[in-house]
Amino acid sequence: MIDRTGLAAFLRRRRESLQPEDVGLPRGRRRRTDGLRREEVAFLCHMSTDYYARLERERGPQPSPDMIASIAQGLHLSVVERDHLFRLAGHNPPPRGAASDHVSPGMLRILDRLGDTPAEIVTELGETLRQTPLGVALTGDTTRFTGPERSIGYRWFTDPASRQLYAPEDHPALSRLFGCGLREIAGLRGPDSRAARLAELLYPRSEEFRALWDEHRVGVRPDTVKRFVHPEVGLLELNCQSLLDLDQSHRLLVYTAEPGTESYERLQLLSVVGPRLAP
Prior knowledge:
The protein is globular and about 55 Å long. It is an alpha+beta fold. The chain has 2 domains: 4-94, Orthogonal Bundle (434 Repressor (Amino-terminal Domain)), CATH 1.10.260.40; 105-273, Beta-Lactamase. It has a 5-stranded antiparallel β-sheet with strand order 2-1-5-4-3. Helix content is 43%, strand content 12%. This is Helix-turn-helix domain-containing protein. Residues 35-82 form the HTH cro/C1-type domain.
């Protein structure tokens, strides 16, 4: 059962405790509000201001689990706070750990400060959860996929267009990385895991994946330099730095170019070109 009073009070307290710079928003001038404005929270949570305001006023319908998950992420809640919010709204909390899409507040704060750098937060299955604007300009909006297609490894073996972003000579190594990586994760998480289900879907669909899966090879690791073939600025050789959230098994990937190189100049141009559609 929903606890409307508790839910409203918790939302108000969390909103008032956050400042715009805490969530990647500009402060602006003549700001008198203590904490975030309701319209700012609504923007962060991808909902109307009226809908969010009704929750703080103990009105409106019971929010769905998807709405609560969006609010939890928009307010930069910890996993414990997220679970509390779900219970106040009358829902059971979603799973924690590797199966969770909830990005930790610390990861979000770092990502918010990387607006002028290509960066993304991904799950262990290569599902993009968040991107910086320049990250979208580099790879397209890869948060838009649903179902198995959310995983870059799944797309790699089922959608030839997904390979166009990468240098052709790197394709064999990337196939090994995605195929053997899925084998390793499935072994770690067990036969009932999302990784195992992805493998079950891929095995009959891709001959290349079947060959890699049947090798039973693990321990393949990505190169620190990734080469992207952007349709407008050309080849980009970028260093990839990774930050791991051990609790959620999420990774923050940050892409940079060595100053003075052609890739560095092209990365500067990319910030002017702007976002593009994902392949």
